[in-house]
From TrEMBL:
GO molecular function, one term: phospholipase A2 activity
Protein name: DUF4189 domain-containing protein
Pfam families on file: DUF4189
Domain DUF4189 per the UniProt entry, residue ranges: 215-305
Matches recorded under InterPro entries: DUF4189, PLipase_A2_dom_sf
GO terms under biological process: arachidonate secretion; phospholipid metabolic process
Organism: Aliterella atlantica CENA595
Keywords assigned: Signal
Signal peptide per UniProt: 1-22
Length: 457
């Protein structure tokens, strides 16, 4: 069953999570190359303390510490004192949340994690800190009462723990994504710094790659940035960096064999002219030629999708044949334990094609339902908790959708979306979520897989 939120006034004041989740936007001057090891060491080389990763208004306690763009510094809110919420005291008993917050910091700044993978253990650890209070020696006032004050202190601690975890969950989508992007930027900067220290020069043409075979694996992002020195064992990390660099319109850049003599590029949308690399017009020409061919034979130019393979060994650019895709679909997985989940459309859509899977707004007390949400008797049982609906117009558990900040709608069928009476082009932002407030997502379970396409309307 849904539980009433404790100390709602505190929660509202705490909706912005502790410092681990805040990402700065101020760009500060960078220091000279560090000679000490304050900000970590990689490959035996001390790394600079880049101040561009400092959080706005804070000092050295938020400088990078390799391998993290932000060093763990306990529990606090942006602009507050580091570790301000590390400790909680009640009736003479003390509890420390610092290590739980530090582990949560590291999780948010580990590429490839999800908000749930970080926030669920975080909430559990906070509560465990409180429960472990049972092992604290009794205070003098408790000797006669057999621990009454200690029990009350533990209960008060659990209220604080719930408040902190709910605040984190409320902002999880935004702050986790920003932390991931910041971490990707940091790791790229580390790699670029180490390459520069070794005196190596990035390749600028196919011929350069042919003459410098030491670059074991090379990929190029849409902006023309080169990534190199990666093999199969860590290509997942490379993919995360590339996606962060070039945006969510990028698809996978990889095949099972990421070898010495090949670079792989993928062009996801016709408007991606940024695939023209800065120093290689031959690549640009091949891409533009392939795009033109695709648009000529396709009924939907936005659906053109091409792979261009460059062979440094031969010193030539080979393009794949364009394949028109008339009824392409785009699929997304929507997690019941997260709030709004945003995706960028790689092609034009106007309708759901299929919706599969199941979820629940309370996995312990209610059944798994589809996109229509909890109906009938379950809806009646949930009625007293309607304040926990994200949108009061629709049932608990309904699949909610919004495109490009339009009004939220409830996806009930896979028919043409007459509510919008339009198509949404490549690059539009589509958002999905379960109809349940952010503060109540902790006991949810399941996910839905929704596929969108362009249907005749």
């Amino acid at each position: 069953m849904k539980k009433t939120i404790s100390n709602i006034s505190y929660l509202c004041a705490f909706l912005v999570s502790y410092t681990a989740q805040a990402i700065p936007w101020a760009i500060l001057p960078q220091p000279a190359i560090a000679q000490d090891q304050r900000c970590g060491v990689k490959n035996g080389i001390p790394l600079p303390c880049w101040t561009e990763f400092l959080e706005d208004g804070e000092g050295e306690e938020t400088l990078p510490l390799y391998p993290y763009a932000k060093r763990p510094n306990g529990c606090s809110i942006p602009g507050g004192r580091p570790g301000e919420y590390d400790n909680f005291g009640s009736l003479g008993y003390n509890f420390s949340f610092r290590e739980a917050c530090n582990r949560h910091d590291r999780c948010y700044y580990t590429l490839g994690t999800t908000p749930g993978q970080c926030n669920i253990p975080y909430a559990q650890e906070l509560l465990q800190v409180c429960k472990d209070g049972i092992f604290q020696p009794l205070k003098p006032q408790d000797v006669v009462s057999s621990g009454k004050s200690r029990a009350t202190a533990i209960a008060n601690c659990e209220i604080r723990a719930e408040w902190m975890s709910k605040a984190v969950i409320a902002g999880q989508s935004k702050y986790h994504q920003e932390a991931q992007e910041k971490q990707a930027r940091y790791l790229r900067k580390v790699d670029d710094f180490l390459i520069a220290r070794r005196g190596q020069v990035l390749p600028t043409t196919v011929q350069d790659v042919e003459l410098q075979p030491r670059y074991a694996g090379i990929a190029i992002s849409p902006s023309g940035d080169y990534y190199y020195g990666w093999n199969d064992t860590n290509k997942q990390a490379l993919e995360s960096r590339l996606i962060s660099k070039c945006g969510s319109n990028c698809k996978s850049f990889f095949t099972s064999n990421f070898g010495i003599n090949r670079m792989y590029l993928a062009l996801v949308q016709a408007s991606d002219n940024a695939w023209a690399t800065r120093a290689n017009p031959s690549i640009n020409n091949a891409v533009q030629e392939a795009l033109s061919s695709c648009r000529e034979v396709s009924r939907d130019p936005d659906s053109c999708q091409l792979d261009v393979v460059i062979s440094p060994k031969q010193g030539v650019v080979r393009r794949s044949e364009p394949v028109p895709r008339v009824e392409q679909k785009t699929c997304f997985s929507v997690d019941a334990r997260q709030g709004w989940q945003s995706f960028v459309l790689p092609r034009t859509i106007n309708s759901p094609e299929s919706i599969e899977g199941g979820w629940s707004v309370d996995a312990r007390s209610y059944s798994t339902v589809n996109h229509l949400g909890h109906q009938g008797a379950e809806a009646e049982r949930l009625a007293p908790y309607n304040d926990y609906k994200y949108d009061q117009r629709f049932p608990f558990g309904a699949l909610l959708m919004s495109v490009s900040n339009r009004d939220t709608i409830w996806i009930q069928t896979t028919d043409y979306i007459v509510d919008w009476n339009t198509s949404f082009p490549v690059g539009s932002v589509v958002r999905f979520r379960i109809n349940d407030t952010d503060a109540a997502l902790g006991d949810n379970a399941g996910s839905l897989n929704i596929c969108l396409h362009k249907a005749a309307g």
